[in-house]
Amino acid sequence: MHNDKSLFISGGGHAQDTKQLDSYFVSNLKNKIILYIPIGLQKTFVGYDECFEWINNTLNQYTEKPLEIEMWVNLHNKKSDSLSKIDAVYIGGGKNSYQLMKLFKETGFVDILRKYYDAGGCIYGGSTGAIIIGKYISVFGETPTDDYIYDDGLNLIGNYS
């Protein structure tokens, strides 16, 4: 883990759109170990195998040593110590930010992620993954889902959204 916590926030888009940010992100990874969480995308829309292929192709072009990427598609029963050897957590996006935040909260992953970040961890949020890093997730006019109406995000960037 890093000594100084850091955030990388991307609006998403295609790999070409985030080229400079991605290159800088990869250059800051000491051991080249990433936890990738693609659950912001609907599995039926893209499929997580394609997500894994995408993250590998997108980020490995910026390093000589291939990245070690672990992908979690289920956040249930995860523990804080699971992140102890991780250089960065990469939160993908694509789905409604209310749905993504609901998954993080109902599994307890919010607390694990905050503990990781507060201890000096690095987080990359892409698209919806970036939105939930802010104070509020309601800033882009998305409609709350029927079963989750809370506007609070992770609030990791000093009360900004």
- Name the helix and strand elements from N-terminus to C-terminus, one letter apiece: EHEHEEHHEH
Task: Give the overall silhouette.
Answer: globular
Record the strand order, biggest sheet: 1-5-4-2-3
Poorly predicted sequence stretches spanning 5 or more consecutive residues? none
Helix-strand makeup class: alpha/beta
The count of DSSP E runs of length 2 or more, i.e. the number of strands, is: 5
Count of helix runs: 5
Roughly what percent helix? 25-40%
Mean pLDDT: 89
How would you characterize the largest beta sheet? 5 strands, parallel
Assess the beta-strand content as a share of residues: 5-15%
Rg calc:
15 Å
In whole angstroms, how far apart are the ends?
25 Å
What does this entry look like structurally?
There is one protein chain. This protein has 161 residues and is an alpha/beta fold. 29% of the residues lie in helices and 14% in strands. The chain has helices at 19-27, 48-60, 97-106, 109-118, 128-131; strands at 6-10, 33-37, 68-71, 88-91, 122-126. The protein has a 5-stranded parallel β-sheet with strand order 1-5-4-2-3, with helices on both faces. The longest helix is centred in the middle third of the chain and has 13 residues, at 48-60. It is globular and about 45 Å long. The model has no long low-confidence stretch (mean pLDDT 89).
